[in-house]
């Protein structure tokens, strides 16, 4: 039994924050941002919008495409680092909103690797017979945790959500393999030191020290990202008995265009087979791969039988890769 993708969906905020807008906010330029990241604009949630604002419509789109009633879902899981609140889980808010009455629901945190970790979790539930229909969401509202005075990080992040419905299938199409990895010794390369139990949000000094914001060591993260993405991509293809020339699309996490290009070169994949949309969304963390997958799917650029390779890295540090036969 395989976990087959039968529906995809996405939702992003209306507001576009361009590089020209950022030029008026911090000491930066469009040329600097574009040359170093490939980003031209990103979507930013309104003050009244939260993670579930976008998770819910993305989920509904995926269910509609799949032709699956929410009442038939067995599991709703959300990969994110920016939930509506610490508890209850945002997945429970989605579960109620879409009417998934019999589904279990939970959130988990794996940084930008969250969606692929979610596919790995869902695959296990389906392959061992514990679930037939699973909704996996990758969604982030990182703008609410971005330090808009830090020009190194505030140019990077955007908001949005992507979702897929996985269904148990007896044919040879579906998720062929997942590889999940982590290294906690590198946790301080990308983290938010304030807001948790170590430095709680009611700690005045935490606020004054600007700890409840994203912190990143960019150069060190870049090096780890390129190496880990290349390694995990190769590992999952070997595990599945596939070669890189069989891959129709590589969908990498949209963190930085230079990282994407460096990984493509290491893997010797034709740039035309590497999907990139970072210029329009920025780094949407766990949402970046499902947003890209939905764009490809809805624009009819994926055919049945195509091999899709997805790879991500993120806070933790975590990294992961998934291979799918569409």
Structural class: alpha/beta
User: What's the helix-strand series?
Assistant: EEHHEHEHEHEEEEHEHEHHHEE
Rg, alpha carbons = 19 Å
Number of strands: 13
Question: Quick check: average pLDDT?
Answer: 96
What fraction of the residues are assigned to beta strands by DSSP? 15-25%
Taking the alpha carbons of the first and last residues, their distance comes to 15 Å
Structural notes for this entry:
- The chain is α/β, with parallel strands linked by helices.
- It is built from 10 helices and 13 strands.
- Helix 4 links the parallel strand 4 and strand 5 (104-108).
- Helix 3 (51-66) crosses helix 4 (90-98) and helix 7 (218-240) runs parallel beside helix 8.
- It starts with a strand and ends with a strand.
- The model has no long low-confidence stretch (mean pLDDT 96).
Describe the structure in brief:
The strands form four sheets. The protein has a five-stranded mixed β-sheet with strand order 1-7-6-4-5, sandwiched between helices.
Throw out a few tags for this protein.
single chain; 326 residues; alpha/beta; five-stranded mixed sheet; four-stranded mixed sheet; 13 strands; 33% helix; globular
Helix and strand layout, with pairings?
Blueprint: E1 2-11, E2 16-18, H1 19-23, H2 30-37, E3 41-43, H3 51-66, E4 75-79, H4 90-98, E5 104-108, H5 114-127, E6 133-141, E7 159-169, E8 174-182, E9 190-191, H6 204-208, E10 215-216, H7 218-240, E11 247-252, H8 257-267, H9 278-281, H10 288-298, E12 307-314, E13 318-325
Parallel strand pairs: 4-5, 4-6, 11-12
Antiparallel strand pairs: 1-7, 2-3, 6-7, 8-13, 9-10, 12-13
Helix pairs in contact: 3-4, 7-8
């Amino acid at each position: 039994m395989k976990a087959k993708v039968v529906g995809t969906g996405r939702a992003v905020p209306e507001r576009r924050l361009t590089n020209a807008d950022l030029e008026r906010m911090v000491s930066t330029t469009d040329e600097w941002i574009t040359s170093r990241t490939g980003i031209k604009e990103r979507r930013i949630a309104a003050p009244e919008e939260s993670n579930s604002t976008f998770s819910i419509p993305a989920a509904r789109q995926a269910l509609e495409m799949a032709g699956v009633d929410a009442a038939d879902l067995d599991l709703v899981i959300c990969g994110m680092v920016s939930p509506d609140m610490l508890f209850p889980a945002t997945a429970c808010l989605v579960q109620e909103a879409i009417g998934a009455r019999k589904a279990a629901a939970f959130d988990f945190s794996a940084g930008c690797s969250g969606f692929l970790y979610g596919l790995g979790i869902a695959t296990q539930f389906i392959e061992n017979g514990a679930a037939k229909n699973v909704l996996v969401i990758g969604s982030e509202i990182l703008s609410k945790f971005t330090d808009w005075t830090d020009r190194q990080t505030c140019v990077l992040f955007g908001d949005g959500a992507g979702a897929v419905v996985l269904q148990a299938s007896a044919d040879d199409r579906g998720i062929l393999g997942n590889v999940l990895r982590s290294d906690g010794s590198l946790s301080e390369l990308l983290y938010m030191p304030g807001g948790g139990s170590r430095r709680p949000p009611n700690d005045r000094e935490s606020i004054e020290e600007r700890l409840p914001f994203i912190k990143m060591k960019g150069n060190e993260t870049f090096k780890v990202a390129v190496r880990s993405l290349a390694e995990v991509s190769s590992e999952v293809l070997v595990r599945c008995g596939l070669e890189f020339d069989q891959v129709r699309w590589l969908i990498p996490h949209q963190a930085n265009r230079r990282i994407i290009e460096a990984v493509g070169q290491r893997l010797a994949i034709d740039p035309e087979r590497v999907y990139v949309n970072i210029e329009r969304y920025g780094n949407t963390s766990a949402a970046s791969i499902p947003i890209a997958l939905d764009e490809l799917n809805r624009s009819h650029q994926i055919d049945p039988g195509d091999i899709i390779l997805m790879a991500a890295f993120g806070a933790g540090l975590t990294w992961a890769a998934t291979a799918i036969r569409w």
